[in-house]
Design a protein that fits this description.
Layout lengths: L3 E5 L8 H13 L3 E5 L12 E3 L2 H10 L5 H6 L7 H16 L2 H8 L11 E5 L4 H7 L6 E5 L6 H5 L22 H34 L6 H6 L3 E4 L15 E3 L13 H8 L10
Parallel strand pairs: 1-2, 1-4, 2-3, 4-5, 5-6, 6-7
Helix pairs in contact: 2-4, 4-6, 4-8, 6-8
């Protein structure tokens, strides 16, 4: 008999669902019952997984991201969103989910059945605090899938070393080969990021969670610390080499599929020319 597996992401873009769908499909093929909660209809259902899309959460994310231009911002070397927008998303998205009592009940217990329970939960490492707060007290073993491996805050709270001298700030084009002045600038960026996270959690998200779930809820940063296993969507062969502890497992290219044969037209195009070399973008 398979396990009941809950997968959930509070991520504001559909790309957050891709590693979850890949992992969920593999678990389903092994006989487990997999449900994916997200703000996006389609990715789970189209791959044979149970899909749970809370309507209020979906509406909030749709309105919040309607004018985003993430790729264009990268080309222009600009911040994709303002620091304030990145912070407020955490508690506003969480409150949109918490206001839906049926969805919260369903999230805690499979299909809201008080006699049912999740055997394991796999939560996104991006904005995990809201989901951890909702699942608190349900005694569900929890794994974190860090879909955006550049976010090192959660795994550093779990004891993994993240020295700022070799941990580049993901919002700028810095690498581990920073010079002295770049390392000083990098430390300033990361210090600011840590202060922003503290304000976001202590000043806004924690009060929102206790408003809906009760004052017995502990500091949600402590709940992040207690997660025993993190699947990191990265690998030292394609990203920075970092000395993770045994509780972090690199799973880069989790969603990759075996190469398929090209169509005849494409194969002919690539073989054309004396040099037999082509560049495809």
């Amino acid at each position: 008999m398979g396990y009941n597996v809950l997968m959930a992401t509070m991520g504001g873009t559909k790309s957050h669902t891709i590693p979850f769908v890949a992992l969920g499909s593999s678990l389903k093929a092994r006989g487990h019952n997999v449900t994916l909660l997200s703000a996006f209809s389609g990715p789970a259902a189209n791959n044979g997984l149970q899909e749970f899309v809370p309507s209020m959460f979906e509406a909030y994310v749709g309105n919040y991201t309607s004018e985003w231009d993430l790729i264009g911002a990268r080309f222009r070397d600009e911040m994709p969103i303002s620091p304030w927008d990145a912070m407020r998303y955490a508690w506003e998205a969480c409150e949109a989910l918490l206001r839906d009592e049926i969805s919260v009940s369903w999230l805690r217990r499979s299909e809201g059945d008080p006699r049912a329970r999740w055997d394991v939960a796999v939560l996104d490492g991006a904005y995990p605090e809201c989901l951890l707060g909702i699942l608190y007290g349900e005694d569900v073993p929890t794994i974190m899938l860090n879909t955006v491996a550049l976010y090192s805050g959660s795994i550093s709270r779990q004891g993994n070393p993240s020295p700022w001298s070799v941990t580049p700030y993901f919002g700028k084009s810095l690498t581990q080969d920073m010079n002295f002045f770049q390392r000083i600038l990098n430390a300033a960026y990361l210090t600011t990021l840590r202060i922003m996270h503290w304000i976001m959690i202590s000043g806004y998200l924690q009060p929102v969670l206790r408003k809906y779930l009760g004052d017995q809820l502990p500091d949600i940063r402590d709940l992040t610390t207690e997660i025993p296993l993190t699947l990191q969507n990265s690998h030292y062969s394609v990203a920075d080499s970092v000395p993770y502890l045994a509780n972090v497992v690199n799973v880069a290219c989790l969603h990759c599929k075996p190469a398929t044969q090209l169509s005849l037209d494409l194969e002919t195009f690539l073989q054309r020319g004396e040099s037999r070399s082509s560049k495809v973008a």
